[in-house]
Amino acid sequence: xxxxxxxxxxxxxxxxxxxxxxxxxxxxxxxxxxxxxxxxxxxxxxxxxxxxxxxxxxxxxxxxxxxxxxxxxxxxxxxxxxxxxxxxxxxxxxxxxxxxxxxxxxxxxxxxxxxxxxxxxxxxxxxxxxxxxxxxxxxxxxxxxxxxxxxxxxxxxxxxxxxxxxxxxxxxx
Length: 173
Description:
Elements: H1 3-19, E1 22-27, H2 33-43, E2 48-53, H3 55-65, E3 78-83, H4 88-101, E4 105-111, E5 114-117, H5 118-126, H6 130-172
Helix pairs in contact: 1-3, 4-5
């Protein structure tokens, strides 16, 4: 590979490392071009990209970008998923591809500055989606408020029922 082309690839990788909030590293060895294309298409809507990278070039780009903790995963055949937003859907897509193909191996990654091993990435993949978590939070916050509102509404309701009973007793007498 020409030196100019290597510098160009390092520059592209460095830009990806700087722009990504999270990165997931995987061993892609054995995946067909079609399987890689399907995986790329699956993660693209989540504002992510999937690059096959030569380790020496990736290490240089990591150092230039100032990213720490990723070097340990840059061994063997390497593909890197760069996530610009939420990493959970990308981790889910990679875990699903790993399970479906029995070929893709997740090595680890850097999620919002925290280094996670393969098990950590797989755990991230099993978490509910952000929308589900938001819904669970709303339900959890709504419960006590709804209980308070019911309790406060019961006081005047009880008074109205008591007054109605008194009125019925007087009317009967």
